[in-house]
Specification:
globular, 8-stranded parallel β-sheet, 7-stranded antiparallel β-sheet, about 20% helix, single chain, alpha+beta, about 725 residues, 12 helices
Length: about 725
């Protein structure tokens, strides 16, 4: 009764304000949230009971997003403000103070969105204080609230084999704001979006600015997230860059590039700030990094014409529950599997270096014979996808048609960066006013006429010839351009943002048209499928014995925060980066032991490698080796594409290896171990089985044969006696 009276009073109080009745009615229809609504179980083992929901508080003043793992609460009266952000697994309240929900700068004027004033103590926030807080006299005020199921922002449908064919489920809340005073802004709408997902402690946030007016407006900057977080440490002295940042919140956005092959170095949006109003902090100079803001390092400065929508980067905020690197890596990998399921596609492909058309057709036939599923015409091949002549298109279409008839996907490589086009096209260095100064020295500008034509021609060629794999070398990475004559951007001020949007739109287009994309930078959240695992190319000119160990290090290091299907490795069948005869595998029939082990290392990790050369086999004996490895991989494909538990990194001194785990499969784990020594290894090693979901006993089968039962220790581990042949490998399957 009290709640209903409050809502009625609130409704009358808000009469006259645009949209008031709409969002009050929405709050009234939501189920009432109970903090006793709990579910149990480790979400990394079984997350089926953690369903996203949107609730209202008992007093009718708050909206609550939760899925049993994360809880985010917004005060709606007298203005929208996030007042609680809680990890329900650990009980940690991450928020210590209220900040604006966003800050949008239009035509050089900053407009804070939401927030409340009145909190004098910013070291912590007591619930009873909030009733006395007041709204700021902001230009933008809440107009409406919209609640819906999550709608995919990439309309992906799985084409290749994948471990997760499903788009994410959950709920979306958007707070919609209108200008209340400035008549020029009355048709510029700002919407702040929040998505919460089933089964994972993850919230996605972004801001949209929509121009329904009669003239353009420049979106200079958007801070789409601003959180006053609990600090990680209390340092009496020290600068922000010297202090630890909060470990309990992992944030990743779809605005990342640096050619680093990992997100941490590629990130362009995470900013840790001081809070000078937090006067009770331990640091004497108020230098504690305790405000997290998300915005691009280079402001977009985008002119928003009538009818256009500006969309900020999406910030995916994943709550972590400890310091364990493996567990946190599993959580990040689960995030990719959930929000970017296309990254779980993992076709078996060859990287063909062709000199003639006949070599292409032969390679297609060899793919069929060995069980491969795709062929990429590698760099240095004889075809040119930029050639739109009818003769070239007809020739490439014949290749595609032949491949598709044999159930092989086919595509090619295209170089964008590291090349000169002309002075009118190339990126202009703002320091010199001349071409040069790009990430790789020279590069065309994607916003130039040539760059726009490059994208248009790629789409045209792929549509006409039917290629369905694309490997794009560049653009790298966020180059700015000072040209004022390129049609794709106005000048230096908007050049990075505009080029990035052109590039990411291409990848989304490819994704939605069934084209698998290998890209050299971190564009997973905009539709790409795979990136390099992380390696140094010149290492593939080293002797094969060194390559085997270094490759296993690459696999081990490159799968902490990437799923196996997200990275590609490299196997030089022919000379690469100057490698000699002791580095390459050709003639394949003379190096079958090394060829087999290199395949087993990669396929056993679930990682596709670029087997770069003119053929997959040269004799019947070599053909059988490839067939056997691919058959083995396909037999265990589900578990080999599951997450990796890192057991021991290769160091050339003792055994090394890793283990896949998946509690949802018959094969709960797959253990693959290697011996770099010239004598066999026999020893007992500890195998951690917690993430298999097994709790009592485990059946371990050496090479899939008759197994032995083991009782799990209290830490869910077993001690397994293993034998690994000299300079070889062994593998074990774990079942219930």
């Amino acid at each position: 009764m009290k709640r209903n009276l409050f809502v009625l009073f609130f409704l009358f109080w808000m009469i006259g304000n645009s949209g008031a009745q709409s969002y009050v009615t929405i709050l009234e229809t939501l189920p009432v949230y109970s903090s006793e609504r709990t579910v149990s179980g480790d979400w990394l083992i079984n997350n089926q009971s953690y369903k996203a929901g949107i609730f209202t508080s008992a007093n009718g003043k708050e909206l609550v997003m939760t899925n049993g793992l994360v809880e985010r609460t917004f005060r709606i009266v007298p203005d929208v403000a996030c007042t609680s952000y809680k990890n329900l697994t650990t009980g940690l309240q991450m928020l210590r103070a209220i900040n604006p929900e966003a800050v949008v700068t239009l035509d050089l004027i900053a407009y804070p969105i939401g927030g409340l004033r009145g909190q004098d103590e910013r070291g912590y926030l007591k619930t009873e204080w909030i009733k006395d807080f007041t709204a700021f006299d902001h230009e933008y005020q809440l107009s409406d609230i919209d609640i819906s199921d999550i709608k995919p922002y990439i309309n992906w449908k799985p084409i290749n084999w994948c471990s997760n064919p499903l788009l994410p489920k959950g709920k979306t809340v958007s707070f919609i704001y209108k200008a209340t005073k400035n008549t020029r802004l009355k048709d510029i709408t700002i919407a702040v979006y929040y998505e919460i997902y089933d089964g994972i402690p993850l919230i996605n946030k972004w801001v949209e600015v929509r121009n329904d007016g009669k003239e353009s407006v420049v979106v200079n900057k958007v801070i789409n997230e601003s959180l006053a977080l609990v600090e990680e440490e209390s340092a009496v002295v020290g600068k922000p860059e010297e202090m630890l940042k909060p470990h309990y919140l992992y944030v990743e956005t779809n605005y990342a590039f640096n050619n680093a092959m990992n997100y941490h170095v590629s990130d362009q949006t995470t900013h840790w700030k001081r809070d000078y109003d937090y006067t009770s902090q331990v640091n004497y100079d108020y230098d504690t990094p305790c405000i997290l803001e998300i915005y691009p390092n280079v402001d977009p400065n985008m002119r928003l014409d009538v009818g256009e929508i500006f969309r900020s980067p999406h910030s995916f905020e994943l709550l972590l529950d400890g310091y364990d690197k493996e567990r946190n890596g599993l959580a990040v990998r689960k995030m990719y599997r959930t929000v970017a399921p296309w990254t779980t596609e993992n076709p078996i492909f060859m990287h063909l270096v062709s000199r003639t058309d006949d070599q292409v057709y032969t390679a297609i036939d060899q793919c069929v014979e060995t069980g491969y599923e795709a062929l990429i015409l590698s760099f240095g091949s004889h075809i040119n996808v930029e050639d739109t002549s009818l003769a070239n298109m007809d020739n490439m279409k014949k290749m595609a048609d032949y491949a598709h008839k044999r159930n092989i996907r086919i595509g090619c490589y295209s170089l964008f960066s590291s090349r000169k086009i002309n002075s009118e096209t190339d990126v202009i260095n703002p320091l010199t006013g001349k071409p040069g100064g790009a990430f790789f020295g020279n590069a065309p500008c994607l916003g130039s006429e040539w760059g726009i034509d490059y994208i248009r021609n790629l789409k045209y060629m792929y549509t006409q010839i039917g290629f369905d794999i694309f490997e794009n070398d560049g653009p790298y990475p966020g180059d700015v351009c000072a040209s004022t004559s390129h049609p794709g951007h106005e000048g230096l001020h908007d050049s990075q943002w505009k080029q990035m949007n052109i590039q990411k739109e291409l990848y989304r287009w490819c994704n939605e048209h069934g084209i698998y994309v290998n890209a050299p930078d971190w564009y997973f959240l905009d539709g790409t499928h795979k990136i390099a695992l992380g390696y140094r190319e010149v290492n593939f000119s080293l002797p094969r014995d060194q390559q085997k160990i270094l490759n296993r290090q690459n696999i081990y290091d490159g799968t902490w925060f990437k799923t196996p299907s997200m990275g590609w490795g490299f196997v030089p069948l022919t000379a690469y980066q100057g490698g000699g005869t002791d580095a390459v595998l050709e003639p394949l029939s003379e190096h079958l032991k090394d060829y087999e082990q290199l395949m087993v290392q990669y396929y056993g990790a679930g990682v596709q490698a670029c087997y770069r050369g003119p053929r997959l086999y040269d004799t019947d004996e070599a053909k059988v080796v490839v067939q056997n490895v691919i058959s083995w991989y396909k037999k265990y494909r589900d578990i080999l594409n599951s997450d990796i538990i890192h057991l021991r990194r290769a160091d050339g001194r003792d055994w090394d290896g890793f283990m896949h785990v998946n509690p949802d499969l018959k094969e709960k784990a797959f253990l693959l171990i290697f011996n770099p020594l010239d004598k066999p290894i026999e020893k007992e090693i500890v195998i951690p089985l917690y993430y298999t979901g097994l709790t009592g006993k485990a059946m371990v089968k050496e090479q899939g044969k008759t197994g032995k039962k083991y009782a799990l220790n209290r830490d869910y581990s077993i001690k397994l006696k293993v034998t690994i042949p000299a300079d070889g490998y062994n593998w074990y399957v774990v079942e219930n």
